[in-house]
């Protein structure tokens, strides 16, 4: 099974019931989360895991804090993206 952005970046529980499937193409103009076209030059592209998204679509998988401004430190823990605060809580438990 090839890892996808959705397996790395889990959505908050209220969004996990989405019936959307990830776009299987690697078109860098399609958001890996919402599957909508990314218009203009403002987009986030990560090489590991491979994903491209709108800045508004990149959120903490625990608390849903917006991370698209790239001013908040981002961690990947147990295949879930965490903001700094949620990652620190994970380490304390």
Task: Write structural notes for this entry.
With 93 residues, the chain is of the alpha+beta class. It has one domain: Cysteine Rich Protein (Ribbon). 14% of the residues lie in helices and 17% in strands. The chain is built from 2 helices and 4 strands, in the order H-E-E-E-E-H. The chain has a two-stranded antiparallel ribbon with strand order 1-2. A two-stranded antiparallel ribbon has the order 3-4. It is elongated, with a radius of gyration of 13 Å.
In short:
This protein is α+β, with helices and mostly antiparallel strands. It has two helices and four strands; from the N terminus they run αββββα.
H/I helix tally:
2
Q: Provide the succession of SSEs.
A: HEEEEH
Distance between the termini: 30 Å
When the domains are counted, the total is 1
Q: How are strands sequenced across the largest beta sheet?
A: 1-2
Hey, roughly how much beta strand do the residues contain? 15-25%
Biggest sheet overview = 2 strands, antiparallel
CATH class: Mainly Beta
**Share of helix, binned:** 10-25%
Q: Spans with pLDDT under 50 lasting ≥5 residues?
A: 12-25
Tally the beta strands: 4
* Gyration radius from CA atoms, angstroms: 13 Å
CATH fold topology: Cysteine Rich Protein
Mean pLDDT: 76
Principal-axes geometry comes out as elongated
CATH-derived architecture: Ribbon
Structural class comes to alpha+beta
**CATH superfamily, called what?**
Cysteine Rich Protein
GO molecular function: metal ion binding
Region (Disordered): 1-23
InterPro entries: Cell_Prolif/Cornif_Regul, Znf_LIM
Keywords: LIM domain, Metal-binding, Zinc
